[in-house]
Give the backbone structure.
Amino acid sequence: MTVQPSTPPSRPLEPQKRAIVIGASSGIGAALVRELAHSGYLVAAVARREARLQELSNSVNTAVGPNRVITFSHNVTDYDEIPTLFQTIVQTLGGLDLIIYNAGVQPSVTVDEYNFDKDRKMIEVNLLGAIAWLNQAALRFERARQGQIVGIGSIAGDRGRVGSPVYNSSKAGLATYLESLRNRLTRHGVSVTTIKPGFVDTVLFQENATKQFWVISPQEAARQIHKAAKRRKQTVYVPTRWGLVGLIIRHIPSIIFRRLSF
């Protein structure tokens, strides 16, 4: 499929950083597009929902300046089109400094449900889509000996829980993949950051959360993610207090953890 940007960007007179955000039409992704654009980035926003992308780009470009955000409609499970689309975006931006993979799905799953269609979708979007996109960026950044990769995982990937085994697995797989990329690319001057959000007030959270505490807005999450990327952090919990929760969860003995209902 041939994908064209919504509007070709004007070339700045001074150096400008360029970013790609995948999964950009709402929630954390849309907030990241706004955060980066307001921080001076030229941003390519990638997502399935073209109308949402257009609304986002119109809003940001009106506030920040023309052509600061350009949009590309794409389903991350269309793996075969990713290499060509990636090159198209990089050429349109005039380069690439940062890529953020934020696309993710979490269908509602009951504790006694084993639904392969739902499970496959989570693996395809949350893990395989990330690999397909970030492999492209890793190859480019390794050759350039610079660049930043950020993957939006979840604290849900820290342990296997009874509530959603495959969602947990998809996020655990993403974390391990990002760790492997980090170990491979650090020697080439490339940073790889794993973000593990707790509760962020998004549609996905509202559809799945049975308990709500320490909830932050997508805008606050985006600010913390951008801060972590600028500092080239390795793994960051958002908000940071979830790091303590993650530490506790990881050290609960299995004989106790399997009895927990969350």
